[in-house]
Amino acid sequence: MILSLIALTGCSAMPGAADAGAGRIDLVMLQPPRSGLNPLSDDAFKLSRWSTAETLVNLDAAGDPQPALATGWSQSDRLTWTFTIRRDVRFHDGTPLTAERAARSLRAAAAAAPKPRILDGVELTVTAEDDKVLVATATPDPLVPHRLSSPQLAILAEKAYQGRTVNPVGTGTGAFVLTKVDGTSGATLERNERYWGPRAKAAGIEVRFVPDGTARAAALRTGEADIVEAIPVSQAALLDSRTISEVPMPRTNTLYLNTARGAFKDPGLRAAARAAIDSKALVTGVYEGRADVAAGLLGPALPWSARRPARPATVEPGPANGTKITLATFTDRAELPEVAAVLRQQLERAGFEVELVVREYAHIEADALEGAFDAFILSRATVLDSGDPVAYMVSDFSCEGSFNIAQLCDERVDAALEEAARTPAGEKRRRAILAAEAAILNTGAAIPMLHERVLQGDAKGVTGSVKDPRERLLITTDTHAR
């Protein structure tokens, strides 16, 4: 079954609409919806950050699973996990949450094409028995609870699933009800007066999507916004320092090299590109010191990643000799075009002839995934989905990965990823993850350059917004603006 999202329109007023204009939060976000707020796409993270769509499981600050719409779980056997569904929860359309409705949401995600990243390489069978949801995998999977915390596996009401469509408007369970989506311009949410948890302090949320970083910063400076995500580094110094929060995050700025065709099919030229890049210059210049030089794909937001073993160079750099390459990135993250300009200079000094391609993300993603460019600069969250890096590594670097911009297919990488995936959570799994990271980097397919930090703007009257390194939470029941 192919699930996609048709155009969304406003729905009838939901509980809390009478509070419109009183205690509302004006929120400015970076990227507009990529798939019309399709909850099975990356747009699910917007729904999660607005506290409108919820999952069976949440993750705590340490990345360990905690109850959400499921009150608890256990492993029935090596392949099956049993989740107990929370009582007295209602969807925004008034229908009660049941185990069967939760199972239907998970089955829809598992059957989607393309399926959510968190399910790459995972076969799920989902059934319901009384108040229990049974999730079985084809092979033992120690991370099933972590997977079910992914915002792409949010539980929605039955009416969200109509034929080939999935519509999140008025179909979640969260503290705020999504009532209207205005294309790629904005969205409106109202407080859910029937929420199963604490009543939200804010009456509602008005969302605007503003890709231009200078305009986002201006909205905070002029008082037009209460909360602004992704303040550009170049704008941070122009704002009141008391309104800026900075937190290391599991997001890596990486150069992906096309290993399937073109110049970087040659491992020697991949090594030449790696030798040409000066990451420190990017951190001090483009990011004004508000980032960390990358030693690997994983950074300081995962402190255990610093225990990676030494990794000697496996391939000697070859001569560029005027080799022509296309270097691409997108405008939605304000720093990336400047990163691309600096990389162009560094690569040209190493002997490459570089054509630069810069577009909005919505207009470049498809080409990047099809391998249209020799090199692509991507700001990538490394534990966005499950709180565990394996899902990101499988998605980006396995032969069957759905986000494999590097077009990489390497038996040693796949074997290392499979070993990491089947290792139980804990120190042994962390060692397996670092071994997989080493296998990936040894191919030269990815050159990690720097680890970004969260720069979030909160107006002085804002209380309770979340600075979440995983970018899952932003506005909760405690968030309000005075």
UniProtKB/TrEMBL annotation:
It comes from Nonomuraea dietziae. GO terms for biological process: peptide transport. It comes from the Bacteria. One of its GO terms (cellular component) is ATP-binding cassette (ABC) transporter complex. Residues 65-402 form the Solute-binding protein family domain. InterPro entries: Peptide/Ni-bd, SBP_5, SBP_5_dom. This is Peptide/nickel transport system substrate-binding protein. GO terms for molecular function: peptide transmembrane transporter activity.
